[in-house]
Design brief:
Blueprint (H helix, E strand, L loop, with lengths): L3 H6 L7 E4 L5 E12 L2 E8 L10 E7 L4 E5 L3 H20 L1
Antiparallel strand pairs: 1-2, 2-3, 3-4, 4-5
Length: about 100
């Protein structure tokens, strides 16, 4: 079984992403985008919970070290805004081609 980072980085993956919190809670997400930016890579994930607005997206930093790989929920509003700006720029560029 592949780890969550391998699933997210796999361009062929269409499965939902399952994240298990430190407290053991399971959350399912639909992958929206992977954004390599500067020295970091971010995943934009849409929560698949009842009552979640269809446009809601969460930004996670993909952290890969020699010993582990992890998703860290991004909390810095400046970085979150940069991610959305890059995502919208890519969408706009894709529509033009």
């Amino acid at each position: 079984m592949r780890n969550i980072i391998e699933q997210i980085l796999d361009e062929e993956n269409t499965s939902n992403i399952k994240i298990i919190s430190e407290s053991g809670e399971i959350a399912l997400f639909e992958q929206v985008a992977v954004l390599p930016m500067d020295l970091d890579t971010f995943a934009l994930l849409h929560p698949l919970e009842k009552g979640v607005h269809p446009d809601e997206v969460m930004v996670f930093r993909i952290l890969v070290t020699k010993d582990e790989a992890a998703l860290i929920l991004e909390e810095n509003p400046d970085i979150i805004n940069e991610c959305f700006e890059e995502y919208y720029r890519l969408i706009k560029t894709k529509k033009k081609s």
